Amino acid sequence: xxxxxxxxxxxxxxxxxxxxxxxxxxxxxxxxxxxxxxxxxxxxxxxxxxxxxxxxxxxxxxxxxxxxxxxxxxxxxxxxxxxxxxxxxxxxxxxxxxxxxxxxxxxxxxxxxxxxxxxxxxxxxxxxxxxxxxxxxxxxxxxxxxxxxxxxxxxxxxxxxxxxxxxxxxxxxxxxxxxxxxxxxxxxxxxxxxxxxxxxxxxxxxxxxxxxxxxxxxxxxxxxxxxxxxxxxx
Length: 234
Prior knowledge:
Layout: H1 2-30, H2 39-64, H3 69-73, H4 77-88, H5 94-107, H6 116-127, H7 130-141, H8 145-169, H9 173-201, H10 207-233
Helix pairs in contact: 1-5, 1-7, 1-8, 1-9, 2-6, 2-7, 2-8, 4-9, 4-10, 5-6
């Protein structure tokens, strides 16, 4: 029973950490519902895109069947690096990314049995989900089959919750603005915590080595950030 609760809580934490920014994008999409872009297009497209990300992340689970769990656990450094990067570059403009995503939703066209609008939303979800794969792969890698199934079921349920929540947010401008302003600031710390959990749970690094590694990552990210600033100023 405790393993089931752990798997459910892990699934909720991982999904929330990697999809808070989707709340903004989905809210913008739902706010543009009209005769062409229907609510069902957004829901179907979100599920298509998210399932694609989960399938791509299953490579981590398959690798976990061959590679020792201690080695796979080092992939927990990926969400830590992503979280540190977001924290150190907190001034990045999320609005420009979401506006580009909305433009893509109106311009993309696909010929298939589903509507082009649904495929456009799926494309947005996939394009915005590069972090998801990097975090889900190490998470899946040290899961048992039972835990993996529970986590995926939690993910699929939460996709529906996300769609319902963002649709309701379109009617509450004050809440949507608050989420846009402060929700993204919480993401880096949740990602870092998730990566720490993966590494310590798999015994890949002890706390002292993990702390030293994080400090090295911060230094490396600072160097990269400085070099980018100098390049842009030239």
